[in-house]
């Protein structure tokens, strides 16, 4: 039988509502502990959360033995998600972090409080499935809106710290992103054709020819745009335009055929995700056809906000900070 909270605190233990949590720390864990303290002291909110926990955890295991109380499971599961950590670190925090042990109600007072075994943590914390955590999250978010909003229709403004992480993408140019878009379109088209060979009215050999032609023109264009070629050839601009025109003709042919297939052929339910992916890569193909045409043939300067640096990770941004120091 599980209890909601162990009412009998350790001798000398600080009650949860009296825990002093550092307010000036910029680490995420004190903020999490403050949220747990608010949930514990708000009777209406913790009643909703306990009800959700009981509906899931108390049904899964009925052995008659006193298990870990629901409050401890909830706090430990929240700590693991907040820190995005593993059970080894959670084991350390549950047994040696003073503030967390106070929040669990087992902090060492005059007498040493309860210690948690690693396997005990694993067995109990994993009882909270994703669906239950989402339900609890909705309850907490609703309570947060009531605390922060001054008026019902007023928008919430949240300040957060951001940081930059390096993305693993190749050097982005509009013409090699055009190749990426084209090859992914052909990959997905070939997957459709495997299930229905004659349904799309295209031979497999045609897709192989398109792929070969598209790659060859991309590589040729790369060589024409290189500095070495510019030094050797005075008519570099004309060569670049000629190869770019051939490159775009093949890309437009592929785009035209694929757009017709998307519009005419109905997609089965089991092919929905493939269809969605194909539609996305066709959009990327059309976008980079336009960018290559404007930059290489019409001589336009493409605005920064129109550029995409990876079709696979479209959220990637180009960030330049400081000066690049040449290595000696």
Total number of domains: 2
Shape: elongated
Total helix count?
Answer: 12
Uncertain spans: none
Sketch the topology as an H/E string, one letter per element.
HHHHHHHHHHHH
Mean pLDDT reading: 81
- Helix percent reads 55-70%
β-sheet strand percentage: under 5%
**Strands, count:** 0
Task: Report on the biggest sheet.
Answer: none
| Alpha-beta content class | mainly alpha
Computed CA radius of gyration, to the nearest angstrom: 30 Å
Features:
328 residues, 59% helix, elongated, mainly alpha, Four Helix Bundle (Hemerythrin (Met), subunit A)
Word description of this protein:
The longest helix is centred in the last third of the chain and has 29 residues, at 236-264. The chain has 2 domains: 16-148, no CATH class; 174-306, Four Helix Bundle (Hemerythrin (Met), subunit A), CATH 1.20.120. The chain has helices at 28-41, 43-60, 70-83, 87-96, 98-104, 118-125, 130-148, 174-195, 204-224, 227-232, 236-264, 272-297. With 328 residues, the chain is an all-alpha fold. Helices cover 59% and strands 0% of the residues. Helix 1 (28-41) runs antiparallel to helix 3 (70-83), helix 8 runs antiparallel to helix 12 (272-297) and helix 9 (204-224) packs antiparallel against helix 11 (236-264). The radius of gyration is 30 Å and the shape is elongated.
């Amino acid at each position: 039988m599980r209890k909601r909270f162990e009412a009998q605190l350790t001798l000398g233990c600080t009650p949860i509502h009296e825990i002093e949590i550092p307010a000036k720390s910029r680490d995420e864990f004190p903020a999490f502990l403050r949220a747990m303290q608010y949930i514990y002291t708000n009777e209406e909110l913790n009643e909703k959360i306990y009800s959700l926990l009981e509906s899931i955890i108390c049904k899964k295991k009925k052995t008659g033995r006193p298990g870990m109380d629901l409050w401890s499971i909830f706090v430990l599961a929240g700590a693991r998600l907040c820190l995005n950590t593993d059970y080894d670190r959670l084991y350390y925090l549950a047994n040696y972090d003073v503030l967390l042990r106070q929040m669990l109600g087992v902090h060492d007072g005059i007498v040493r409080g309860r210690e948690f075994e690693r396997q005990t943590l694993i067995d109990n914390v994993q009882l909270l499935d994703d669906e239950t955590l989402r339900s609890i999250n909705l309850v907490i978010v609703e309570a947060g809106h009531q605390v922060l909003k001054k008026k019902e229709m007023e928008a919430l403004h949240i300040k957060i710290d951001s940081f930059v992480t390096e993305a693993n993408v190749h050097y982005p140019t509009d013409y090699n992103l055009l190749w990426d878009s084209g090859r992914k379109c052909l990959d997905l088209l070939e997957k459709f054709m495997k299930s229905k060979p004659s349904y799309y009215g295209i031979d497999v050999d045609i897709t192989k020819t398109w792929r070969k032609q598209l790659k060859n023109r991309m590589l040729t264009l790369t060589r024409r745009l290189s500095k070495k070629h510019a030094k050797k050839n005075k008519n570099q601009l004309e060569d670049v335009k000629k190869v770019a025109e051939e490159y775009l003709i093949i890309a437009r042919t592929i785009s035209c055929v694929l757009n017709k297939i998307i519009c005419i052929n109905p997609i089965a339910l089991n092919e929905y995700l493939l269809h969605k992916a194909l539609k996305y890569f066709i959009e990327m193909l059309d976008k980079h056809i336009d960018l290559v045409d404007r930059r290489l043939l019409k001589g336009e300067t493409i605005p920064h906000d129109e550029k995409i640096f990876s079709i696979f990770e479209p959220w990637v941004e180009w960030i330049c900070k400081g000066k690049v120091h040449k290595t000696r």
